[in-house]
Specification:
With about 200 residues, the protein is an all-alpha fold. The protein is about 80% helix and about 0% strand. The chain contains eight helices and no strands. It has helices at about 1-10, 10-30, 35-45, 50-65, 70-80, 90-105, 110-130, 130-180. The longest helix is centred in the last third of the chain and has 50 residues, at about 130-180.
Length: about 200
């Protein structure tokens, strides 16, 4: 599962392709009479806005952390596993990524409310224009998908807070170390090779 997540994080095109195929399959399951080609094209075009948002988010995260796609994948894996890096440069990049993602969650309740309203509106329109099969299908989707998004967001938020606390704890320990050991300075700087964006 971790390998799949790493692959999808590194390859944005794979995320988009799987999302389009999954959404198309769901639409065909709810409305089996539609043309698969027409559904695929319609879903692909409707996904363009989401792709643009994903690209913008990734570009901002690269700029905030000063790293490339490989480095961003590594940092994301650190957040998922809770593993605090030892290299100072990587810790700074991870701290910047955590801060960036936590800042982005400030609008999470409004985004979730909009999603619920959007799915609710689609369900109502489906009830007015289609049969009971489509209405029930979109009704289940309107409940299941926002609930899944909510719990996934909560899990990611807990991971971000845990990593921020771990990084702050590491920083506090590093500041106190010279006083505890009697050695001058704040300790040696790491020399690890950290990928940076060019």
């Amino acid at each position: 599962m971790n390998r799949l997540h790493t692959f999808l994080t590194r390859n944005l095109w794979a995320q988009v392709a799987l999302s389009v195929l999954g959404a198309s399959a769901l639409v065909l399951l709810i409305s089996p009479g539609e043309s698969p080609t027409a559904v695929l094209i319609r879903v692909a075009f409707s996904s363009l806005g989401g792709v643009a948002v994903l690209l913008a988010v990734r570009r901002k995260e690269k700029r905030a952390t000063g790293t490339d796609t490989t480095g961003l994948v590594t940092l994301d894996g650190r957040i998922r596993s809770g593993d605090v890096p030892t290299d100072p440069a990587e810790r700074e990049a991870l701290r910047a990524l955590v801060a960036k993602r936590l800042h982005r969650t400030r609008n999470r309740p409004w985004a979730l409310a909009f999603l619920v309203l959007l799915f609710g509106g689609v369900t109502v329109l489906t009830a007015l224009t289609a049969g009971p099969r489509e209405t029930i299908g979109f009704g289940i989707l309107a409940v299941a998908f926002p609930v899944w998004i909510y719990f996934q967001g909560r899990k990611q938020l807990r991971r971000l807070h845990r990593m921020r606390e771990a990084l702050e704890g590491e920083a506090s320990a590093a500041e106190e170390q010279p006083y505890e050991t009697g050695l001058p300075g704040a300790g040696a700087r790491g020399q690890g090779a950290w990928p940076s964006s060019t």
